[in-house]
Amino acid sequence: MSMEGISDLLERLKESGVPMNDSIADAMQSVEIEDFTDFDIDTFLMDRPIPFLSTENGVTKTISAPHMIATLLHHLEILEGHHVLVLGSKGGYIAALLDCMMGPGGAVTVVEPHPGVRRHTSERLDLFNSMGEIRVLPIDFLEVMDDDFRPVDRVLITGSIRELLPDIENLVEEGGFVLGPFGGPVHQRLLKRERQGDEWLDTDLGGVVFGPMDLEEAERSPLDPQNLAEHLEDILELVSEIIEIDEETVSRIEGLIFSLRELPRDLPELDEDSTEDEIMEHPVIELLLMEMDWLGPMWPIFGDFLSVEIASPGSPGEDEYGMAGGHEDLVP
């Protein structure tokens, strides 16, 4: 990466108020983003998420936008010699940044559920000249960690998660904390959850939107009834905070969510080759059409929340590079 390009980006981020201490800036200048992706890095230099892998099911996995990475690193409060557990690899780039910040005594354990992403991450980090210890492990590793495992000072979760697994909670040292986006698929709160004895103290750091932590969730069809139910549930909660929805409509939406959850898990999938009859007779489509008399007027509102504009404070000029849609990361 041209040093000029990354220096300009970091300067724009600082000017726009993104937290950027010397440790974060030095790491972002010394770790080459192109070592972790083969995609065009101009996207990254415009403060956008950059793809690093397209899975077999066609889901594009991204490294977060620079402003989001800097924000996460700032809130992690990294010290030299720390041990950080990263859930969701983001291609290995964040692990490399953390290694730079923690120095020779530091350790990064990356836990990645998706085999293809894990393979990519391992290959890229094997070529990285790390100062401390970095290892990449599958998700089931969390279940077999023993007392010899080095205690964790920080946990960084890089995808949306509804609640923290007890396996992770048990690894965190007294005074250590977890940082991640907690919530449903459409919007989350970035929470810092600090361990104080047997209690967890939460600090809300604002609203964000990340892709799901579990990649299989991202690969579900939009017509997967569980997937649609989760999205509707999340949107209902979000919209209710902004506008007042009458009780009858709320109960109808809740009824639709319940009906979707009751549908069988092995429904046929629809694709571009599906016939019109197959589409119209699909149980999810049938259910939506039955509710269309009241759902129709609501749908445009729901649709707005299913494609969220990505904020990019470090872009050279939003007018020139404005880009709507997607929801890899968002800082409203």
Concise structural overview:
The chain is α/β, with parallel strands linked by helices. The protein has 14 helices and nine strands.
Plain-language structure description:
The protein is α/β, with parallel strands linked by helices and 332 residues long. The chain has two domains: 3-209 and 310-321, Vaccinia Virus protein VP39 (Rossmann fold, 3-Layer(aba) Sandwich); 220-306. The chain is 40% helix and 18% strand. The strands form two sheets. Strands 5-4-3-6-7-8-9 form a seven-stranded mixed β-sheet, covered by helices on one side. Helix 5 (93-102) links the parallel strand 3 and strand 4. The longest helix is centred in the last third of the chain and has 18 residues, at 225-242. The protein is globular and about 60 Å long. The two termini are 28 Å apart. 38% of the residues are buried.
- The strand count comes to 9
Structural class: alpha/beta
CATH architecture type of the largest domain: 3-Layer(aba) Sandwich
CATH superfamily of the largest domain: Vaccinia Virus protein VP39
Integer average pLDDT: 81
Q: Note the total helix count.
A: 14
Tell me the CATH topology of the largest domain.
Rossmann fold
At the first level of CATH, the class of the largest domain is Alpha Beta
- Helix content percent band: 40-55%
Determine the N-to-C terminus distance.
28 Å
Number of domains: 2
- Output the helix-strand order: HHHEEHEHEHEEHEEEHHHHHHH
Overall shape: it is: globular
Strand order of the largest sheet: 5-4-3-6-7-8-9
**Share of residues in strands:** 15-25%
Instruction: Outline the biggest β-sheet.
Output: 7 strands, mixed
Taking pLDDT < 50 over at least 5 consecutive residues as the criterion, the unreliable ranges are 318-332
Round the Cα radius of gyration to an integer and report it: 21 Å
